[in-house]
Specification:
Distance between the termini: 9 Å
Number of domains: 2
Low-confidence stretches: 1-10, 13-31, 55-87
Order of helices and strands: HHHHHHHHHHHHHH
Strand content: under 5%
Number of strands: 0
Helix content: over 70%
Structural class: mainly alpha
C-alpha cells in the first residue's frame, strides 16, 4: 500500500499546493481540487486523441494510410497481437483507430506487463491514422496539457515522496521530451506515439486512476482481514470488529463516490479504510 499512499500524497499535494498538509482531508478538499482534476482530465490519452482529431480533407484514399507500416512477409497472421502491430494500409482508417481504442481500453483490465505491451500495440496502430488527421497546433496543445500536469504534480514528488512516483513522472516527462523532439524533426507518427506513452504514464498519477487502484488494494486487504462474515453492528469493546465494520462502510463509500464521478472523495474513503486495517492485517 506504500505506493498508493504515496499516490495520495502526490494527488493531494499537487491538487492543493499545500506546503505542510495536516492530513488527507486537508490534502483533498481545497478549492484547487476541481482545477487540478480538469488538468488531469485533459491528458492526451488515446481515447481523447481519437475524439479530438481533425478529420482528413480531400486527400486521395491511398494517402490516408501512407504512414502505416505494412505487415512483413514473415509475420504470423494467426497471432492477433502480431496482426495488430502491423497495420494493413488498405484497411479503413476508422476501423484501425476503433481497434486501437478498444485495445487501449482493454489494457486497463490486464496485468501490468501485458497492459503495457497492449498499449504499445495500440499506439502503433493509432498513430499513423492520427498523424494523417491532426494539425501541428493540435500536437502543441497536447504537449501543453502534458506539461501542465507535470508542473502540478512535480512539487509533491519533490517533497520526498516515493521512488515509484518519481519514476512514473520522469517517464511521462521523458516521453514529452521525445514527442517534442520527434515533432521538431517532422516525424509526426513517432511524436504521437511518444505523446500517447507519456499521457498514459502520467495518467497513473491522476485522481481517477489512483482511486480505482486504492479501492482495489484496500478491498483485497479487507478480504484478507475478514474471511468470516462481519457483524455490521459489532460489540464496541471489540476493537478489531469495530475497525473492520468501519472499513467496510468506508470502502462502500469509496465505491459509491467513484460511481458518482468523485474520485477525490473515493480516495479519502479508501485511504481511511486502509488506515483502519493497519493494525489487523498486512
Amino acid at each position: 500500500m506504500r505506493v498508493l499512499r504515496g499516490s495520495l500524497l502526490l494527488v493531494g499535494a499537487a491538487l492543493t499546493a499545500c506546503d505542510t498538509p495536516a492530513g488527507p482531508s486537508d490534502l483533498l478538499v481545497a478549492s484547487e481540487t476541481k482545477a487540478a482534476l480538469a488538468v488531469a482530465e485533459a491528458l492526451p490519452t488515446l481515447d481523447r486523441m481519437a475524439v479530438r482529431r481533425v478529420p482528413p480533407g480531400d486527400r486521395p484514399a491511398e494517402d490516408i494510410g501512407a504512414h502505416a507500416a505494412p505487415r512483413p512477409s514473415g509475420a504470423d497472421s494467426s497471432d492477433p497481437a502480431g496482426a495488430i502491430v502491423w497495420a494493413d494500409p488498405s484497411e479503413d482508417p476508422e476501423t484501425r483507430l476503433a481497434s486501437a481504442s478498444a485495445m487501449w481500453l482493454e489494457a486497463d483490465s490486464m496485468p501490468e506487463d501485458l497492459a503495457r505491451e497492449t498499449r504499445e500495440r495500440a499506439y502503433a496502430l493509432a498513430a499513423p491514422v492520427l498523424a494523417d488527421r491532426i494539425e501541428p497546433a493540435f500536437l502543441e496543445e497536447a504537449f501543453a496539457d502534458l506539461q501542465a500536469w507535470i508542473d502540478m504534480a512535480s512539487p509533491a514528488v519533490d517533497l520526498g515522496a516515493v521512488p515509484e512516483l518519481k519514476s512514473t513522472l520522469q517517464e511521462g516527462a521523458q516521453g514529452l521530451e521525445l514527442a517534442r523532439a520527434a515533432a521538431a524533426a517532422g516525424d509526426t507518427v513517432m511524436s504521437i506515439r511518444a505523446t500517447l506513452r507519456s499521457a498514459d504514464a502520467l495518467r497513473e498519477t491522476t485522481p481517477p486512476v489512483v482511486a480505482v487502484r486504492m479501492i482495489r488494494e484496500t478491498a483485497a486487504r479487507l478480504a484478507r482481514a475478514e474471511p468470516e462474515r462481519v457483524d455490521p453492528n459489532p460489540d464496541p469493546r471489540d476493537r478489531r470488529a469495530v475497525a473492520l465494520a468501519r472499513a467496510r462502510r468506508l470502502l462502500a463509500g469509496a465505491r459509491e463516490a467513484m460511481g458518482e464521478g468523485d474520485p477525490v472523495l473515493a480516495i479519502r474513503h479508501a485511504y481511511y479504510a486502509d488506515r483502519l486495517l493497519e493494525d489487523f492485517v498486512e
